[in-house]
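Researcher: Quick one. two chains, 336 residues in total.
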Amino acid sequence: MVALDVDPKAARVWIDQIRPNHPSLIDPAHRADELFGVINVPNGIWIDEDGTIVRPAEQAFPERQTAPDWQKLADSPDIPEQLRETLQLAKHIKIQPKEYTAALRDWVANGSKSKFALSAEEVIRRSGPRGKAEAEAAAQFELGQYLWANNRPDLAPRHWREAHRLQPDNWTYKRQAWSLADPFQGQSDLYDSCWVKDVKKIGAENYYPPLDLTPAHRARPC
Amino acid sequence: MILTSLEVDAKAFEVRTGWALKPEGACKGDTCVPLPQNTAQSGKLDARMISERLGMPLIHDAETNVWCLGPEAMGHALTAAKAAELELPDWHGKPFRLSSLRGQKVLIVTWSSW
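Model:
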């Protein structure tokens, strides 16, 4: 597990309660975005025994016994209006935990023979765009995080605003910055955007790109 | 990659970005980009040169005089399917390398407190 949190203490509050026995890492500079094309949480990446990526970053929800009842939570009395709006949007977000975990189990059982393990070419093709804008967004985010962590938090927002402008579909850059300005990620003086406004803009149903579980065997020699 | 000067240590650059310096240039996976002669031997890189050759944005915070060299802009987030080295602190603060899991299947899942 990799926690994308500029403030390691914020992640440790949760990790301490679970005390996981698997590697549980903290990634303040969101290097997973830069190295693997992560744009949201939870995103999953599969790596085989040789250290080769066989599925790039994509939505990676675990199966749950009971899904949260977002509407019931939104109807709770006395919750802040910003949170109510967030919960009302959350119920429209489309996730695919069953499909994802079934594909994951297939790969664990069948390895490179799994129909969900992709060829190197397909992994690269599906890894998301990285043009000049996305590359500079990564640099702007990292520089902002460095300044935030090194006694100049006042200088971070201008770099994070740039990251948001350059890569608007990267939710880890946006949610990280918004959450430091307002725990509910609502409108603040520091940013032109906020979670509710930006999710409404794209439509909550498009918040996570759908999984592409098209069988795509690795290229085999003829 | 955060820089406080425009001279970059080649080894640190390789560890951070996955681009290895070889006689033929900077290489990652099957991709090699030619660099000026003797770059590999010098052990030092000029950030402006590497930015231009590899398409890595080089940005600057004028108030603190700190630079950041971003990842290569080569069309896709991944330039190669070989997983880049990721070294991060674990929840006890100890450094952990992704490569230490070589020989096992690995599922990386990102999450956050926000």
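The mean pLDDT of chain A is 93.
Researcher: Thanks, that's what I needed.
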